[in-house]
Amino acid sequence: MKQDTVTLAHGAGGKQTAELIDRVFKSHFSNPNLTADDAAVLSAPRGRMAMTTDGFIVSPSFFPGGNIGKLSICGTVNDLACMGAKPLYLSCAFVIEEGYPMDQLEQIVSAMAATAAEAGVEIVSGDTKVAGKGQVDGVFITTTGVGEIAEGVETSGTKAAPGDAIIVTGDVGRHGCTILLARESFGIDAEVTSDCAPLWGAVKDVLDTTHEVHVIRDATRGGVGTVLYEIAGQSNVGIRLESAAVPVAPEVKGVCSMLGLEPLYLACEGRLVIFAPAAVAPAIVEKLRQGKYTADAAIIGEVTAEHPGQVIMTTEIGGETILPQPGGELLPRIC
Hints:
- The chain is of the alpha+beta class.
- It has 8 helices and 13 strands.
- It is globular, with a radius of gyration of 21 Å.
- The model has no long low-confidence stretch (mean pLDDT 93).
């Protein structure tokens, strides 16, 4: 008889563990490299490779536009893509709370499988632990990814240079706003959907257009504003941002206005910030606007030699102000 919830026995390594693996994980993740052994044996990339790992503890674990499973694949795939790396293999580790509904777990795993298939990456190994009631908030997922870096591509937060244009691949702050509304009762009637998406295809489009790309960064925790300050510090450059050029969806703008939030500091899970020479930036934007998740790509600013380490915002009326540096925890547990 199928059990409706996860029990401690499912994490004990016996019959129930095998049943859980076969019923939920193996049935969705099946591919030629998925292993039942202690480690997957894989073909190595031919050139340089990138490797990344990330943990996901989002609350709530289901939200408009996705769930923690989709998010876990997108987060790791996008981290690889930011290094110019085609995602090849992923591993995943689950920590599941005793009593977690089995049908919700299956929805999460199904979303992971669908997102991995879209991104062209294989889930090849994993681990499952079951924690006692109250020790975990539902389910936590940790994913590790390996990818092959495209030949001739080298991106880093240290490579931003004066004269670079700054590109975002779509409207900002959508994921953070979605999680905030899903978790809190503000009495705000706004249909906001997460931008959660796998972005290797977008990066491939950029690299097919030009290899003259200095920085690619996904704007997750802390949003675009935090990314800009990170890059300004790493490269010791200044950044001038055109506030009117920053794309923000009307519904996100409305929520932020009511709650006194800055969209630039709300998380994205399907948006990239790209630094590239101004001469190639229009071609990058044109290509991105043809993409599935990047139709609203825009140039939002430039890198300068003045004001190193600072982000200067040009306002809609032509004045200038310093974008406040991020601090504290504006919106916890968004990924």
